[in-house]
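protien #1 (seq + structre)
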Amino acid sequence: MILHLHLVRHGQTTFNRYNRLQGWCNAPLTESGLADADKAGAKLRGFDFAAAYCSDTSRAQITAARILDINEAAGHARPKLVSDMHFREQCYGYFEGQDMSMAWTAAGGPHGAKSYNDIVSKFGLAATRDFLKEADPFHDAESDAEYWERVEGAFALIAANPDLKDGDDVLQISHGNTLLSLGRRFGGSDLDLSERPANGSVTVLDFDTSKPFDQAITIASYNQ
């Protein structure tokens, strides 16, 4: 079964505006963030969503509700919104809420890397998570293995939905670093991964539920 997943990055929050790491912690949507959600809703108003998923954070839930409001007003049946912790952003542990550049310098500095992109360039994507967990004095930040185990659990929840059928469109509210991580793992060289996907942007994944996770995802469009 192939599902068409429409992943929307939640609307801008105050932490986004302040350039702070925001993983499992919460921050309210700004006025621009509410507009981001409405803009995404307008883009997606023509789709019949068979299901809808988001993390159990208010920024994702509010974004999802506004998109589904617009979709329902356009004449589509409203699916039940499933909020689950498996859809959360990466957990940054001790670094939650800290300035992004300072946090990534703390993680990469001991290894000779000065930024997130510098860590990726020199050591690969997995190192961004493993270095941050290493730098976390409480080691609460997710390692790469811990992160992907949880993310795979989110896709397993979707695949296990007995009401979904081949070709269905599914709404999923996602997060910036998760979208970037999916892009790096499953995207081709033609994707521009130099910046995080914009708040309110739409990324479309074709998800083949019959395949192992490493082979299950094709990126149809990114950061649109």
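ok now protien #2
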Amino acid sequence: MHITDIYNQAAAEGRARFSVELLPPLKGDGPGRVFEALDPLREFAPVSVNVTSHREDVKYVERENGLLERHTVRRRPGTVGISAAIMRRYGVEAIPHLICGGQSRYDLEDALIDLDFLGIDNVLALRGDNLRGEHSFRVHPDGHGHACELVRQIARMNEGVFIDGEVEDCHRTNFCIGVAGYPEKHCEAPNPAEDMRRLKEKVDAGADYIITQMSFDNASILAFIENCRAAGIDVPIIPGIKPFSTKAQLTMLPQIFHVDLPEVLVREVEKCPTNREVREVGVEWAVAQGRELIAAGVPILHFYTMGKTDNMVKIAQALF
């Protein structure tokens, strides 16, 4: 079932729902940790599980002569496979992330064909991060430099058009295409207006819905939704919430995700003697955010859980 259909159904019924986001297993791990994270959430009926995608990393191995040998490795492969395993085990929609970074158009086309064969018809199209150690995004020689181009490729496959146009009268895919939106502006956008223009480009290219980057400030989220509507973006918008869980996130989240942390939240986290108390503060903040957004008429909330979900169980008990 398409996420847009689930969104519209939840809106019509007046019943708020939620989705969660997880990492694929590290190379060498089985699916056990993912299932351990999701099993406790089953009773709360999440509508979907997003599975992140990670580009290649660089590893240096010392040779016998003392020189370093450069290797390219993928530490978290298996996004497509674990997505299929989640759908089979839980009967919920899995949303694998597709990224431009490190992928050719043909790699992406092959991945989309695999997803179609597996019955996975919801995807999130992203440009992806810079390669570690690089300060700008390096485009694959035969790839995409922007998520908008990836969206267009997926939308054309839905129309039965492949990269080289070599297939006639072919099976058409039926992907529901999600993209990312940034309530506090993408870090590379020169200003909010340009950031909104880029988002509208993705929607005009064929995006069906938007999931926002995490934000700890509902005023920013609601203003973002209002600004999207004013810009002519009328697709469903699903706010993203990150349950705060460690003191280290006070510096890590702004550095990596370029988000602002409300002063009140920072003060409450700084008062906590241990991360156990921090997680409780994070639960309370996420529940308060969720209640306010649900009261504002938001049908689906997206939670960036990533690993352990004990805090998400408490949030689900309070909200859903």
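The longest strand covers residues 93-99.
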